[in-house]
Amino acid sequence: MPMENKIALAKVMKKFPEVTFIWKYESNDTDNFAKGINNIHFSSWVPQTALLADSRLSAFFTHAGLGSINEVSYLGKPVLCPLFADQMRNAKMLVRKLLINGSIEVSKYELHDAKKIGEVLRKILFDDSYRVASENLARQLANQPMEC
Description:
The chain is of the alpha/beta class.
């Protein structure tokens, strides 16, 4: 991810001090772009399924890999999907399944735009329709008939 995007994301996260952000990040240069931002916690490994299952998790920002999309769908969390390469199909599928109300697509070309990212983050964190749509999808997936 370009440094410009990392800086924009960190600036946006700083504007939500009441929200704790967990950022899976595999490099040691986090201090360069997130210095002094106390609500961002970096980790090179995150127990993603356990994190998604935690009731305290409000939303999930993902690159929309198929594994992440399956997990977030079954666990009923609102999701922000920046669109990258082959993950575009996965993100669009999730938006369609969640009837536009449980997921928000963000173009990778908008990740440097702190204002735009702030707007969509505020929507997904504080507009209950995203949570409700995500929980409805999880319920539908859990209630599928089983083959014997």
